[in-house]
């Protein structure tokens, strides 16, 4: 059964010119792009997207960062799409957790500036795809 997941190239990835690199890795893995858009993120959308982190120490910095410049939002499809993209992304901390060969492991240095987002489960993916692409 096929599955959809939400991918974001965060503002650091866009400003560093890594959009093509991320898209290329998604395509080479065998995942399929079904939506792709450059957009500015309103505070309200950022709050809903990261609702699970409300109240945490890094929450305000996270919201400021994700609304600081354009992101590329994509819906990606394939068998086990959420897990497949999380593997491409690597662990949250680009130095301590992300393996070399992953997007964060190859291009990231700091937890806050970890380049990409991927939904963390099929259930999160369903919620996030609806949130970002309600007409899809
Ligand atoms: P994401 O949601 O962005 O795909 O990242 P993730 O699942 O790997 O990590 P998550 O725990 O959901 O955290 C969301 C984002 O918050 C920032 N963060 N900063 N300073 C910190 O300790 C800290 N912890 C998390 C990261 O940018 C992380 O991607
Ligand atoms: Mg997360």
From TrEMBL:
NCBIfam families: PRK00668.1
Enzyme nomenclature, EC number: 2.7.4.6
Subunit composition and interactions: Homotetramer.
Keywords (A to Z) from UniProt: ATP-binding, Cytoplasm, Kinase, Magnesium, Metal-binding, Nucleotide metabolism, Nucleotide-binding, Phosphoprotein, Transferase
Species per Swiss-Prot/TrEMBL record: Labedaea rhizosphaerae
Cited Gene3D superfamilies: Nucleoside diphosphate kinase-like domain (3.30.70.141)
Domain of life: Bacteria
Catalytic activity reported: a 2'-deoxyribonucleoside 5'-diphosphate + ATP = a 2'-deoxyribonucleoside 5'-triphosphate + ADP; a ribonucleoside 5'-diphosphate + ATP = a ribonucleoside 5'-triphosphate + ADP
Subcellular location: Cytoplasm
All copies of domain Nucleoside diphosphate kinase-like, residue ranges: 2-136
GO CC, alphabetical: cytoplasm
CC cofactor: Mg(2+)
Pfam families in alphabetical order: NDK
Active site as annotated: 117
One of the GO BP terms on file: GTP biosynthetic process
Function, as annotated: Major role in the synthesis of nucleoside triphosphates other than ATP. The ATP gamma phosphate is transferred to the NDP beta phosphate via a ping-pong mechanism, using a phosphorylated active-site intermediate.
Full protein name: Nucleoside diphosphate kinase
CDD domains in alphabetical order: NDPk_I
GO molecular function: ATP binding; metal ion binding; nucleoside diphosphate kinase activity
Family that this chain belongs to: Belongs to the NDK family.
Binding site for ATP: 10, 58, 86, 92, 104, 114
InterPro entries per the UniProt record, alphabetical: NDK-like_dom, NDK-like_dom_sf, Nucleoside_diP_kinase, Nucleoside_diP_kinase_AS
Major localization listed first in the record, in broad terms: cytoplasm
């Amino acid at each position: 059964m096929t599955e959809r997941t939400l991918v974001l190239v965060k503002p650091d990835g866009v400003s560093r010119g890594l959009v093509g690199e991320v898209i290329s890795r998604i395509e080479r893995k065998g995942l399929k792009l079904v939506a792709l858009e450059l957009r500015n993120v309103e505070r309200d959308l950022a709050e809903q997207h990261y609702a699970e982190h409300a109240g945490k120490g890094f929450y305000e910095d996270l919201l400021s960062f994700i609304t600081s410049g354009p992101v590329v939002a994509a819906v990606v499809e394939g068998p086990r799409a959420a897990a497949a993209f999380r593997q491409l992304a690597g662990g949250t901390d680009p130095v301590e957790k992300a393996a070399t060969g992953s997007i964060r492991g190859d291009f990231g240095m700091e937890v806050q500036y970890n380049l990409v987002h991927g939904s963390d489960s099929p259930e999160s993916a369903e919620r996030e795809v609806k949130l970002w692409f309600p007409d899809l």
